[in-house]
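Entry 0007
Protein: L-aspartate oxidase
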Amino acid sequence: MKKISELSCDVLIIGSGAAGLSLALRLAERYRVVVLSKGPVSEGATYYAQGGIAAVFDELDSIDAHVEDTLIAGAGLCDPQAARFIASNARHCLQWLIDRGVAFDRSSDMAGTGGYHLTREGGHSHRRILHAADATGKAVATTLTSEALRHPNIQIAENQYAIDIILSDPQEITGSRRAAGAWVWDKNSGQVSACRAQSVVLATGGAAQVYRYTTNPVTATGDGIAMAWRAGCRIANLEFNQFHPTALYHPQASSFLLTEALRGEGAWLVRPDGSRFMPETDSRAELAPRDIVTRAINSEMKRLNAACMYLDISHKPATFIRQHFPTICQKLAGVGLDLTCDRIPIVPAAHYTCGGVLVDQRGRTDVDRLWAIGEVSYTGLHGANRMASNSLLECLVYGWAAAEDILAQQPAFCTTQTLPDCTIGSADNAHAQQDFALLRQELQQIMWENVGIVRTTKKLEHAQRHITELQQQLEEYAACVRLCGELLELRNMAQVAHLMAQCALARKESRGLHFTLDYPNQSSAATPTILAPYGDINR
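Output (structure tokens):
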């Protein structure tokens, strides 16, 4: 038995991306805020986001058009109220970023856009994407991190793994259950502490690391979804995992996202012989929503028995390409490819978790004093498929909405729970960590093969059985080995993977990102898949 040390703050934010840091900055004038980052702040998904942030700045555009595009991309499953709430609050949240120094690209050639260069991406009927060259996420993350580090009321704690939410009454199923902080494992010292807080916010991002091929950083292991589930929160629509159509396929490079803005600026998707295939698939061609483009690429690869397809923007002027996509040009040059003249080999890769912890319009979960914002949450915005550049927008709008809600709350430290001792195994981890690496690869392969772009009931049931067996193995390890990041992540990945398969099995149709050969048609009724920790499935 190990005695737990205890810390406290007003607001505990688990996650240090755009959602978490924007919330922290909005709260810090009144509250003491602790932001937990599982690794260095620069390892989060926000830092790697390329494309931009959608908002209506063009005089010829409208909030109605932004909402309509979002609803169409979401294949009938978006919550119209959520889509309108986010689109309506986009501009002032973007202005908040601009006021803090985020330098979005400007253009004197575009009239009626407020002086900003707006690009267009798949699913959008207008140019409405504000961007900072092709590294928008980096610009946002760098600005927010710099300001947060300077603020006296914000403490950013790196290399801190949240284990689980501390609850006021762990046995209470409904009613009085309240979040009171989180158990935290310090990667540097190996020690566990309890961080008490009046309010707890999950801003941990998505879970694309459950797949073998992904554009996400290694930290995207579904931690917040798993913690919320164990705390008693409902989750929704985890069957909808977005596979980005264009990730670099190259033996000498890790999976690297090739932004949708390339296609927005005229790039083509072509077969190995150089012929286009998207015009045959959809009237919007390369600008069709991501689910359609991904399945088209996957279909062509299988039909031709090809390892990849290609992205080609060489018909555009080289100076234009280098000016608008400097980061991608540099990255590709490192593996011997030239974006201005080469066809770039691409494959789909897991990119975004459209489902998550069920929240209301303020980011509130089913547990009192526990919020979830950003990719970890399910707001209803994305439906069955996320439209490009709506993700960072959702982070910012819900960072603002949750801040307004938390600022309106009365202080509510929970003093009813006595912190228990914590049982931690003591066995050596040397061999166990090798096992964890192999088990992680096994899980990722199971998910890629069985809960991927094209599914069947048989494959989904196979995935569930294997994931259940893996979870049992992890329980045995947890009882004896020392706590480590590999075990914590794998535990969460397995939990979320199981929920993804369960959601997919519950949906007896094909819609958006969920395509199953057993139910290839879309049903007339469009309802979210909602799972409750106590056994209820709401379809």
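Curator remark: The chain has three domains: 5-240+354-407, 241-351, 430-521. The chain has a mean pLDDT of 91.
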